[in-house]
């Protein structure tokens, strides 16, 4: 297992290299001059040339890219073109807010979607099951920004129960962003869990367990649920990347000073080091979450764990 984890960690290196190369190329080829944004009304050719020399923007593309990689290997994300502050410091101040919102949204997704999906599968033709299917379709269809605005109008403007933005009110500030970000993915988890549970419940070993007198509660908990969890865990792992992407809209709607909002602002100002820093952190989070999902697979399915221990897993 440890050998497999090390292989997966090493496999992240070419992914990060490819990501940085693609993003760096796009930012380099984007029309416009970042020094014009930096200088604003004080823009002159002389001042622009001086800033380009200070930031290394007057060097060839390949030199700029490899200079960035050399700093990145040392853990240096570079210096922001706009604020002239280290990107790592800005990420350290903003990423915890994104992490809190994403984790809260994930807890909301799994904590509500998983039990509702399991229960609706045990009562497939009930009113509750039909209601949850309609609710899941509605959740999948709602755009994040539109749902966020509706929740702000209802719970902040009309009722005054929750703050409309920022992270100044502690836990209360996280509720609306977490619900907004997690609603769509909760519906996916609910539908996946329900369908996989329905398939698992109809298997022969479930009928055999019921024929032996095992209670329906134990059949669900000990036999059906572990097998039905595999597709759900896959969806949860994939949702980490989707949640980080959705955090860009959520943080913008709720004015949260997080990585997603920082990424949008950096793209607008053509702040290449900040854009790369945000995307590298997001890519690492997605890669690590996928690795955690693979490890969880091994503990749920003994066959997968046996492959890891014998060294046959790729």
Topology of this structure?
Layout: H1 2-29, H2 34-39, H3 45-55, H4 61-73, H5 87-122, H6 127-141, H7 144-158, H8 171-201, H9 204-211, H10 216-253, H11 259-268, H12 272-300, H13 302-310
Keyword list:
MetI-like fold; 314 residues
Give a structural overview.
It is a single chain. With 314 residues, the protein is mostly helical. 79% of the residues lie in helices and 0% in strands. The chain has a domain at 88-271: MetI-like (MetI-like fold, Orthogonal Bundle). It is built from 13 helices and no strands. α7 (144-158) crosses α10 (216-253), α8 (171-201) runs antiparallel to α10 (216-253) and α12 packs across α13 (302-310).
Overview in brief:
This protein is mainly α and 314 residues long. The chain is 79% helix and 0% strand.
Unreliable spans: none
CATH topology of the domain at 88-271: MetI-like fold
How does the overall form come out from the CA principal axes?
globular
The fraction of residues in strands falls at under 5%
What helical percentage do the residues reach?
A: over 70%
Q: List the helices and strands in order.
A: HHHHHHHHHHHHH
User: What is the averaged pLDDT score?
Assistant: 80
The rounded Rg comes to 24 Å
Architecture (CATH level 2) name of the domain at 88-271:
Orthogonal Bundle
CATH superfamily of the domain at 88-271: MetI-like
Largest sheet: none
Q: Counting H and I runs of at least 4 residues, what is the number of helices? A: 13
Terminal Cα span: 11 Å
- Total number of beta strands: 0
- The class by helix and strand makeup works out as mainly alpha
């Amino acid at each position: 297992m440890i050998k497999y984890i090390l292989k997966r960690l090493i496999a992240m290196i070419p992914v990060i290299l490819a990501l940085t190369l693609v993003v760096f190329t796009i930012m380099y080829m984007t029309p416009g001059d970042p020094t014009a944004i930096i200088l604003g009304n004080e823009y002159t050719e002389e001042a622009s040339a001086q800033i380009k020399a200070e930031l290394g923007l007057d060097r060839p593309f390949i030199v700029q890219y490899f200079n960035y990689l050399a700093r990145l290997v040392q853990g240096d994300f570079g210096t922001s073109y706009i604020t002239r502050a280290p990107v790592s410091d800005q990420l350290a101040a903003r990423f915890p807010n994104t992490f809190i919102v994403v984790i809260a949204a994930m807890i909301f997704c799994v904590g509500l979607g998983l039990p509702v999906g399991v229960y609706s599968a045990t009562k497939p033709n009930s009113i509750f099951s039909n209601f949850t299917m309609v609710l899941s379709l509605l959740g999948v269809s709602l755009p994040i920004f539109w749902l966020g605005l509706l929740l702000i109008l209802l719970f902040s403007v009309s009722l005054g129960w929750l703050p409309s933005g920022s992270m100044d009110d502690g836990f209360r500030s996280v509720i609306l962003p977490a619900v907004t970000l997690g609603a769509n993915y909760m519906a996916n988890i609910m539908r996946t869990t329900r369908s996989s549970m329905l398939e698992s419940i109809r298997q022969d070993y479930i009928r055999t367990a019921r024929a032996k007198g095992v209670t329906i509660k134990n059949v669900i908990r000990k036999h059906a649920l572990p097998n039905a969890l595999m597709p759900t865990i896959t969806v949860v792992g994939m949702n980490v990347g989707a949640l980080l992407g959705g955090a860009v809209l959520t943080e913008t709607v709720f004015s949260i000073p997080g990585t997603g909002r920082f990424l949008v602002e950096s793209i607008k100002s053509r702040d290449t080091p900040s854009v790369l820093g945000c995307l590298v952190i997001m890519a690492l989070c997605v890669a690590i979450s996928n690795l955690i999902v693979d490890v969880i697979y091994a503990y749920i399915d003994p066959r997968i764990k046996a492959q890891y221990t014998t060294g046959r897993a790729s």
